[in-house]
């Protein structure tokens, strides 16, 4: 692995002294594990990057950089050790077949470079505006991976039609859990100062509630197909309503008033803006 990394750095055009330093960084390494009062004997490391060093993730990314120059480079994405392959086509059968080929190419590259890809962590998602139809699996080695109903990528939950309903429901539930804990700190008679709880809501509830909104919120000007109709609110409005419910619970943690208190009064007295203002901030 050490020699491969040095060769990779030289192929990428890095200065020779930097490549030799990386080789020295990986040479003569040892490790031991400590748990409470027990420490294991020192064991020499034959390969791999040492954990805990800020240099290790950088060298790992440089070593795995060729992954993103394999077939269909414009459809390959990665963050740290997470890799995604996006395939497009006129049918799900074609995209599944193409994805299987690209995945096999990735597995072959890993075998030649000392990197393994765990099939248990491989997830498949079909994106299509059509109604649910036959969803062919994607092969990862000897395993067939069935498509998921929802898939998480860097904290964002993606669904088949990119409605982001699962994403909003997941993060709204997390925000409600935090708000519930804050509400337990006081009631209408005693408890934490409202100013302290308000700071906790701004610091702990709002970031959770607004996580990833840039991926699905289009802004104040909605396209025609996203505007509300006579049949009911648009999908965006439905997501905003779910978030509003969680934010109301957080506001009532700041001001433990009666349930009949108008929500407009709660927003004004708590200093917490409505959801639509937070989205457009």
Automatic annotation (TrEMBL):
One of its GO terms (cellular component) is mitochondrion. GO terms for molecular function: RNA-directed DNA polymerase activity. InterPro entries: DNA/RNA_pol_sf, RT_dom. It is found in: Mitochondrion. It holds the Pfam family RVT_1. Its main location: mitochondrion. Keywords: Mitochondrion, Nucleotidyltransferase, RNA-directed DNA polymerase, Transferase. The keyword Nucleotidyltransferase applies. PANTHER family: ENDONUCLEASE_EXONUCLEASE_PHOSPHATASE DOMAIN-CONTAINING PROTEIN-RELATED (PTHR33481:SF1), REVERSE TRANSCRIPTASE (PTHR33481). This is Reverse transcriptase. It comes from Metarhizium guizhouense (strain ARSEF 977).
């Amino acid at each position: 692995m050490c020699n491969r990394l040095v060769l990779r750095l030289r192929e990428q055009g890095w200065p020779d002294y930097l490549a030799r330093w990386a080789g020295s960084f990986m040479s003569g390494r040892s490790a031991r594990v400590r748990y409470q009062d027990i420490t294991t004997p020192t064991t020499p490391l034959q390969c791999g990057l040492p954990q805990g060093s800020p240099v290790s993730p950088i060298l790992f990314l440089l070593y795995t950089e060729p992954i993103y120059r394999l077939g269909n480079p414009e459809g390959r994405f990665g963050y740290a050790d997470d890799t995604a392959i996006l395939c497009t086509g006129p049918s799900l059968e074609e995209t599944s077949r193409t994805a299987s080929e690209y995945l096999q190419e990735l597995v072959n590259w890993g075998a030649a470079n000392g990197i393994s890809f765990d099939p248990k962590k491989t997830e498949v998602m079909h994106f299509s505006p059509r109604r649910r139809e036959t969803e062919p699996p994607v092969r990862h080695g000897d395993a067939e991976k069935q498509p998921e109903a929802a898939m998480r990528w860097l904290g964002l939950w993606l669904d088949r039609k990119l409605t982001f309903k699962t994403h909003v429901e997941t993060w709204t539930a997390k925000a409600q859990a935090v708000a519930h804990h804050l509400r337990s700190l006081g009631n209408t008679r005693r408890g934490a100062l409202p100013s302290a709880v308000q700071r906790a809501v701004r610091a702990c509830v709002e970031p959770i509630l607004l996580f990833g909104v840039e991926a699905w919120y289009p802004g104040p000007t909605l396209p025609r197909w996203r505007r509300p109709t006579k049949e009911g609110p648009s999908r965006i409005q439905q997501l905003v309503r779910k978030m509003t419910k969680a934010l109301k619970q957080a506001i009532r943690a700041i001001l433990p008033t009666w349930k009949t208190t108008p929500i407009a009064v709660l927003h004004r007295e708590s200093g917490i803006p409505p959801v639509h203002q937070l989205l457009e901030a």
